[in-house]
Each structure stands twice: as structure tokens, then as C-alpha cells.
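Case study 2.
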Amino acid sequence: MSFIVFLLIHLGLVFTIPSPPSIIRQADKEIIFDPRINIEIPCVAKGDPPPKYTWTKDKRIYDPSAQNNRVAMKSNAGTLIITNPTAADQGWYQCNATNQYGTALSFTTRLRMAELSQFPYSSRSKVVRARRGDWVILDCTPPTGVPDPYIYWSVVGDSDRDQFGTITVSARVTQDYYGKLYILNVEDEDEKDKRPYACNAYSRRLLLLNQGELTVLEVEKVSPTNKAPVKLWTSEQNRVFLLGHEMRLKCIFGGRPTPQVLWRKIDGTLPTDGRFSTDSEGQELVIRSVKFSDAGTYECRGSNELGMALASIQVVIESEPYWIERPEDQNVGVGEDVSFVCDADGRPAPNKVDWYVNGEPIQSEFLTSNPRISINNKLLDVTNVESTDTCVFSCNVTNKHGYAWTNFYLNVLAEPPEIQEPPDNETKVVEGESVEIKCVTFGAPRPQIFWKKNHQLITGGRFTIRSDGTLFLSSSTVADSGVYECIASNKYGSATAKGMLSVKQKTVLQTKPDNQEMRVGSFVIFRCTAKADIGLTHLIDWLKDGHPISYTDSVEKFNILNSDVTRPANTSKLFIGGGRFIKDPYDQNTLKITDLQFEDGGTYTCVARTEVDEVRADATLVVQDRPNRPRIDSIMCTSGSSKNGIVPKVKIDWSSGGENNAKILNYVLQYNTSFASTEWFNVVVKGQKEVSASVENKTDDEITRLTLVRKFEYYETDRIPGTQSDLTFPLSCWANYTFRIKAVNRLGESDPSEIASTSCFTNPCRPDRHPLGVRAFGNQSNNLIITWNLMPKIDWNAPLFWYQVEYRRARKENEPFIPQYHEWTRIKVPSERNYVIIENTPTYTEYEFYVKAFNQQAGDGVSGEATEIATLYRGFSGEDKPGLIPQNFAMDKILDYRTAKFKWDPVLIEQANDPTNGMKGRLAGFLIQFYKISGNLNSQTELKTHKVEGNVSETVITNLPPFSTVRLQIAALNDRYQGEFSTPISIMTMEGVPGPVVNLRGIPFGSSGVKLEWEEPEEPNGIIIGYEILFQQISNIAEPPGFIQPPIVIKSRYELSRIVTGLLPNQKYRFTVLARTAKGASIDPNFVEVITSSAQKPSQTNFQVLSTFEDGFNLTWSTHNQINAASLFYIKYKKTDDIASPWLRTALTTDNFISLIDLERGTRYDVILVGTTGTEHNSLETDSNKETLKTAGTARTSKNVATEPWFIGMMVSILLLIIILINVCILVRERGGKYSVQEKEPFQNQMLSSESQGFDEYQKGPGDDRGIMNQQLVTGPSNMYFDEKQYHDEDDSMAEYGNGENGKFNEDGSFIGLYGRDRIQTYVVQYNQGQNNQSESANPGASKPFTSFV
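Prediction:
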């Protein structure tokens, strides 16, 4: 390409120059138009000045304005618009674009009008008759059309002939390329209820449909017979297709069952690049965008279980002319030489090239008058061009399939120099590298280029000025840095431009990636670091096999770019991706590949890149994967011959498709047959292998020799060693085999190979074996049923196959031969049945029988039994209900509360064989039936059974109902019936541990309590004596067993609820309730998990007075409908008139009532009910409204005794006694008297006892030493409980609550039940944090946690 052509690439982006016309848009070579739609024939050209357009039609000048205003030309273009087109508009059109410098011609376009002719007329329907199973062809003579019409078949409705039901093409119903319909094996449904078939022609361009002759198909209702495939129609034996077009070949085979069609290329392979597919259920081969390599011979094979038929088609690929080198437009200066090459090829090859100038053929006269222009077939030369040589040339190359046409121009110019692309402001390069400083110029004639550095002319050495003006510098150094100036000049003037060159240090790698070997599905990490010039910024990038990797979120493994271009540093955002190829934006030195695929293996290159240089380091990644699919190279079949004793067999050779970096361990060879065309079976190889070898001493004729003894074992396997590449193995007779193979390595199996193109067809022979799965039984007392597994067709070995059953009654020992019973009876059974029923047999009588396989080879007429020796089977006829009843059924001993051992009399052979009272069948075992007839409350009667296998006389039953009277009875069993039960016996089972409680539920009670409720176990297994409650705080459902808290023991079976308080708020607890009998607690208890409520101040609860008596009150309250009810309550009280005295308080309770006692009669008290969330000092409390209550009775009145005589006398006596005591003390002290330690200890114990009280604010009230004071809280290491022994005296009675007065209770005596010994108790837990050890040391006598029994 000349210098001016190079300039034009850039010049067109900057300014326009005078030029001849060029066609840039034109019509297709053929246009088929619908006369109802306007036609547009495009023609657009460029040039300076803009070209003008003219048209020719059929090589004559065509004037659009002379077409009755139907034809117009678009402004600024040569595109024709034809309105209301007619047949007269058909023809060959060509567009001419002309300006002052020349003329360019478009393609010649053929304009054709679409049309669709009619079918030949027929006045009545044609009738075609066919038998079931035969093939039939329905003729169709389609009409002509432009373009060719689409032909299809439909079934016409009875009521309206215009309603079409399109026939769906299938493997059995199809049509050829000329419209005929083929039914490959006729079925009743093809008759379509006598509705006619119609052949239809449809024009896709005109949207027009024509219907042809009607055909009625009548099906003869005869028994269909299977038929081997026969060729009905194929594509022409010799077909020509054009390069790049679509190739379609079709083969139609008749037969029953419907033949399966397979394709192969005899002299090559079918395309593997995705261009190959099949249509019409495999009958049609489709190859898209055909190539020359697709030429050859193609074979279609139709096969079914009876045989196959073949057809071959020779395909030739030809083409229209196509360009090898197309001439290009050229802009040159005066005096230059120029050449144009017009090189095209095709099949058949074009004979010559036709040349044109400005639309006219170049004749010899033109060349004679222009001696500077010469033509040598494909080459046109112009020497020493002149300005008058500007023109448009054209060349045309033709063969029988079409032509290749192109325009190109020669443009002669005269322009002063102009620098179109000056040197960059700064060009950077690393030291030692070569550099180019561009200077793109334009001018005609071509300008001369000079370069200066720092005003000094550059000449020779490491500098070279190329023909396009570029300055080339090799092996740059730091001294080469500076300002460079480009100077361009010709005879019309000159131009200059400057740029700077900067030479930098090279980039070096500090850390290089390592080679790695990984498995598919794992991940790998490569790391690479680099150092660059201080004035440059470097970027780490990665290549795979020399191509850049795209780090994206796409599911693509990686994107290979079309060219190895350098990525600029400002595109770093592209490298951040979430796909399998991950580059950390904060650590660009690392490449991570996740979920490795085999294709990821290869060479990974770390590229440290700056704007001026790059440095690379390679690392190899080996990815191991399953093997590639192997290839079957050859198949040699031996069909076999039953007459000559030749066994059918096959020898298959194969080769590996690639190990994928993991050694192939073995191969799996597979086959399928026409009997199961969709299933693949592994070829099983039989052989022997040595399992041991030893040296033994053997004595022969008194001579001892050392002998090597080897032991072998036979094996069957479907794994062929990976070192083996061929296998010979036998085949079944009368079968059509196809094969494939898979390879196996340590990572798994490969995909199967392609199905081998060679199939094996074997001849019929006798069956190899008899049926398997043979058994005999009776479903009635007077019959014998013999069944077996149906043999698959692959084992028939011939098309005609059946079974033969031979049977007779077995002779007993010393029984005479009776022909009626002991002669063989033979029954022939069809191939589709797998049983025979022999009627009127004696009950449970032994028979001998054979089940054999027979076949008959086609045309032989002689039946043959399987070559295997038949097996003699034995079986018994049907059984009847046993008459035997087991005797002396009794319990031997009880082992535990659910288990007991039972025994009965053994059944003797004579008893079992008794025809009347015997088993009337095989003694299969015994059935024991038992049920509970009495027990504890809530028990239910449930019938259970226990089965015993065989003729035994004892058994152990392990699921008896505990603590119950159980009734049992036994019956004998044969294989079909159960005998009568024996006389029932009754036993009493032991008491056991109970089952789990029922309907256990927990409800939060305030913020520190939970109310538990449950029901008695469904299986009490004894007398329930109480319950245990276990609980612990948990953090998750997987909390290990083991309870932090001791159990709460309830001693009443009737108490089915309990409130547990003193828990932490907003915490999850697991509660387990176990029922207890005298034998122990439940072994499989239920549990419930409850989250306590959040810690909130409880709602206010006010109380009511139930009754008033002389020393107290009965109070009650309700928390119903309160959102945040308190879980514990106590009463605080004091005398109304005693303002300075502290408040007194009762013990905590969870009840909704309390008896406030030991008060003074006739006295007014202030009373407050306090609701609290727990026992902790920081528990939240809410007071009720203060109520002032007065006890019953009259208050005691006090007199002024100070003036009474008796009081004055008493005081004088006391004074005298004090004086005497003082004197005595003085005497004792003087004598050294001592005091008793025992007299002091009670006082100290009393002080210690007072220090161990529960609440600091508690003050002892009247009578507390009797009642309320005894309800003190006991503090342990982590909990606080009510001590029932302190809560009640051993002499607990109603007097405890009111000195025995009935005024404390309602008349109905309800308080007696509520406050008696059996009332509900409360379990209170105290969480003392940080005070446990201190309290223990300060109060060594404090009580420990204990269990409270109710």
C-alpha cells in the first residue's frame, strides 16, 4: 500500500479531499416483491463533489420520471421507490453514481414478482387403501411459485373444508422434499375417521395458501406383521450445495417397528463444531454454513429389530466467486506508480477477470491510447500518474453460480505538506528499549521528512527515519531524552511539529508465581510483585496462555480478547470481579481462581505493566479432571451360525481421548440393542486371577519334591484395565448392537464416546438359557401356580419364542408309579406370559416341574430348546386353614414388668401331617394374641400380636402391658392361613416405670415465674405416687443434659400443676416433668421450654377482706386480665395509731389469699398488699392501695396504777430486793466467783439465729414464733426454698391459723382445703450473686437447698 493510502486512513477523519464516487449501499442481487407492497431498491454513494445517479434496466437507460409517477428517486441518494408494482417492473436493474472524476456501478439486481399457481383440478377425493403395519405413500403434485412454496399436509374437517388440522411430522409419518406424505407403518388412527388428507402449498411472501387434491385413507383391519426396514425415498444420490449455505439430506425407511435412522460420513466425520444436527426424528441431516471439507459420501441407515437398510448420498460443495484480494481505493500524487490486484476464486474456478473504467469495459483500444496503463489478468498497473488519470475502475469475476463485482478509484492529488498527527507532547520509554516517534504527514507529491533534536539535525547511528515519517530509535539511553522536531516539505511548502522523549528505568519483578497442580473444583492462588521507575505507576495483570483474563461477575470462565493489547492503568476498575477469576482491588498482586475447571489449566503469566514497559513471569497450572471421551476406532463383527456352531462375537478397538492429567485406570465398554435402544448396558468380562502362590512338599513314589502351587479365583467385572485398548467378547443371537465406551480415572468417569458408526447384526440361534426367578405356590387349596421372570428379547435369540412348562406330582418314598399322577404334563406358554395355573390339585401336595425356553429360527420350521440344561424345581400346591391347635399354652416365668417367657407343647411331624387336624400346609410358626383386661385408671384395652417363626415351643414377649391382667391365646400358622386360637390364659404383669406425662405446657408467671401444667401419663404402668420437676436455664436447643437446680418433688398424684418462681427475667428455661411409681420415674420424659417475661414493674393488685376475727383477717385478691401480674405476694402491716413503728410483713406466697393472724383484738391496722417479681433484693414491687382494717372484739382498757396501794407496796418490795442483790454480788466478787458458760450460749445462739433471717427489713411481729415466722426463707449457695418442715409443725392443724376459732374460715370450710397439708406449695429460687460465699461463712448454720415433699 502506498504512502498516500496510509495517509487516507487518518485523513478522512480530519478533512475531505476531492474524490471519485464510491458505492456504500446497494441492493441484494435478487429482490422478490409482493405487488401489494411498494418496492425499494437502495443505492447510496459518496464522493466529492457528491455524485449524481442514473439507472439502467435490462442494460437500457431507465428514466424513473417516465413511469406514470409510480417511480421516484430519493433526494441525496439514488434509491428507487416503486409504488403499485406490476409484472412489467420485473427485470435487471443497475445504479450508476457519477461525478466529475468518474462513474461507479452497483450490483446488477434482479427484480421478480412473487406468485403462486394452482394445484391441478380434481372433482373428487382419491381413495388409498392400506393394511395395518404396511407403509403407504400419499401423492402430491405441488404448484410452482416464486419463491418456492412451503408444502405441508393437513386433515380436512367434515363440516368445513377450509378448516385444516396440520399433520405433525413424526418418526412414523413424514414427507419428502417434493411433497409426498409417507406413513411408515399404518395404524388405525391414520384413517382419521374417513376425513380426507390434503396437500397444501403456502407462499410465505404472498401469505397465500392453495389446497390440492383430497385423499381418503382406508385401513384394512388385519393383524399387523413386523417388517424389516425398506428404503422408500432419499435425497438425490448426487447433490451440490454452495459454500456457506445450509445442507439438508433426508432418508425415509418403511418398516414395523418404525425404523430408527442414523447418519454417518463414510469418508470422514460429521462436523463437531456445532453446525451438525438432525430433524424429523433423525430422518433428516442438517449441516449449517457448509464448508468445502463437508463434501463427501453420507450414509443413512434405517434399522429395527428385524434388520436394516442403507442408502448413500454423494455431496459436492461448490461456491460463487469470492474475494482473495479485493482492490482498494488509492489516492496518489502526480508522478507516482500504482497497482490494483483483483484476485478471486470459486468452484468451479472463474476463467478470467473483466475490467471496467467509469462503468465501461476496458477494450484494447483504451490500453493502446493510454500506454501508461497495463492489464495482466488479475493485475492493473498505472505508471507515472497524471492528474487526468483520476477515474473509477471496476472488476468482475464470474462462474456458473454468480459473480463478484467491486468498484475502486484512482485519485490523483497536488497538496502542500500538512502534519496530520504530530509527535506526542511526551513520549516515554524505558532504558534499552526501542522507541518510535510518529509524525503522520499529508501532501502531494509525497513530502520529504527531516528530524532534529535540540535544533541539531539527526543523521544515522541508532536513528532511522522510516518511509511514513516515523523516527525510530534503537537501544534508548537516558541521554536520548530531549525535544524532537519533525519537518515535512515538498515543492508546495513545508510544515513542522515538536514532541518530547523521556527515557525511564525498567520495571523488574520481585516475586514470581509458582507452578501448581490442583484438582477440578478446588481453588488456586498466584502471587506476583514488582518494582517500577519512581516516576511511573505499575499495574499487575494476568494472562492465560498469552491472552488477557477478564475479572468480571460473569459466569464465563474467562474472556479471551481478540488481540493482545496493553491495558491502560486507568481501567483498573475492570479487574474487580466476583466471578471465579478474582483479583483483590486492595491487593492487586494476587490472582485467585475458585471452582477450578479443567479448561483453567495452562500457563498463567504475571504482567507488571507501566505506561511504557512491562515485564512477565510464567507459572504452569495443571488441573486434573475426568478423562476426555475415548474413541472407538474399529469394530469387527462375527454374526454367528447355529448350523456351523459359530458363536456371534465382536472385537472392538479403542483409543484414549486424553487423560486430563490423571492416569486412566480402566474403561467401561457399553452396548445397546434395538430391543432397548434408550438403555445402555456394561459389557461384563469374565476371567480368573491368581490369589495366592505357595511352595509345598509333594511325595510321589517315595520321592519328595518341592512344588509351586498357585490358587486362582474366577471373577466377573465391567472394568477393563486402562492399559488395554481392545476387547473380544460374545454377543447374543438375533440382535442389533451399537457400542460406546467410557474412560475412568481417579476423578471419575468420562462422558461416553460417540456411538460407533459400525453396528453388529447377529443371526438367530437357540436360546442360551432358561427363565430365572422360577417359583411355585398356590393361592387356593386346590391349585398350583408356577411363575418365572420374563426373558428379555435380547435372550430370545430368534423372532419366534415361547416357554414350555412340564410338571408332575412328586413320588413319595416307596410310593408306586401311577401314570395319572406321575407322567409329565407339558404346557406351551406364549412369550408375553410368565405363569401357568394348574387346577384341581390336592391340598399342599409336592410337585416336580421344569420351565424351559424354546424358539424357532426364521425359515427353519424346527423348534429348539435352550442349550442350557434345564433345572428341576419342586413346589407345593395351595394350603388350607390349619386344623391343629397348640396345646398346654402357659407362662413359664415373668422376666420384668413388660417381659415374660411362654411355652407350649411341641408339634410333632405326625400331628402336622394329619390331613384333618394337621397344618394342611407348611408349619410356618405361631401367632400369640394378647390384650389387657384390667389395670389401673386411664388404661385402655388394646389387642396386640406376637409372631413366632418356625416349629418352636417357647418364646419371650417383650411388649406386655405393665401392671395389668393380660389375656393371651396362641394359634398355629402356615404360609397362607391362621388356625384356631387355643383356650385363653390370664397373667398379671409387674408394676413398671410410667410413660411421659401428657400435654405438658408452661406459661410465664410475672417476670420471674413459670406456671407448669400437665396431665397424667397415658401409660402409667402402675400407681402414680407423685411427680418430679427438673429445670435449667439454657442458651440454645443443643444445651447438654444435666440440671443446675435440684428436683422439685411432688408427692401427690392429683397435683397436676406447679408454679416455679425466683427465675431470671427474659431467660429461656427447660422444664422436665417426670411421673413416678414405686418402680421409679419416667425414662422418656417430655420437656417444655419457656422464656420468662421481661423485668417490668408488676401491675397493682388490690385485695378484699373475706372475713374478720379477733386476732386477724382472711384476705384475697385476683390478677385476672393483668398484663404484667406479679408472681409473688406478701402483706405488710402496722397499727394505724403507731405511726413511728416499722412495717411488719408476712412471708412470700404465690396464692391469691392469705390469713393475717396474731393481731390484737379490736385494733385498727394499716394493711398493704405488695406484688413482687422475685426474691432478690433488686426485685420490682408494686403496693396496693392502703386499707385500714379493724380486728373484731373490744380492745383492752388501761388504768392509772401509780396511785394504787398495791402498786406502791410492790415497788417498795422490789427496791429492797435490789439492795439485797447488790450486797450479795459484792460478797461474791470479793470471793472470786465464776459464771457458767452454758448460761451464756443460749443467748449467743439466739443472736446467731436472728442474724440468719431472710429479708433485712423483716421485723418480728406478734405471734411470729408460732406461724408466719416459721415461713422463713432459707438461703443456700445459689437458691432459696420454702422449707416445708419449717412451714408446718409436725402437729399442723387448723388451730395454726386462728387458735382453733372457726371465725377465720368461711362457713363452707373452703379454707380448710386451701390451707391444709395437701395444698399447692411454691418453689422459690434465689439467685444471690456475689454474696453466696460471704453468707455461708457468716452463717455456718444456714440450711442448704433441699427437696420439699407435699
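Residues 1205-1230 form the longest helix (26 residues).
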